[in-house]
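Journal club prep — side note

Before the paper discussion, L.F. wants everyone to see what a predicted structure for a comparable chain looks like in token form. Sequence:
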Amino acid sequence: MQEWQEEILEQEGFNKLKTEQMETINSRNYIGVQGLEGRFINRRLWSDTNPVGKIISTRGKNFVTIQPIEAGKNKTKMSFEIGGFSAICTNQYEQSYDFTELGEPYEIRLSKSMLSNRYYYIESAPRNHYDYNF
């Protein structure tokens, strides 16, 4: 994030997402699956983010075993003000979730092209974010 973008967020009173503090792996800096154990795959769909799972093991150059993860309900009381089409959520960046492992682990082939569609990101923590203002 550029310095001027941080200043705008601070001036408008937004709490920055913790994305800047997490190392994100995408198609630009992906070099293979070695060393990815313990990281999380998150799927970004436009302005929403959902956790996919935790990488629990790797095999060969491209295969990873993923333990599926699900986000619970949002623990934050959301604040809405009149405006926009119906309402504006003033604290949508303060969302907080508990994550639980569910189901059986499965294996996928992880490639640079999978990360290049800009939907999947490998990060150091699971993330869930719902855009209430979209």
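L.F.'s comment for the group: Residues 17-123 form one domain. Keep this in mind when we get to the figures.
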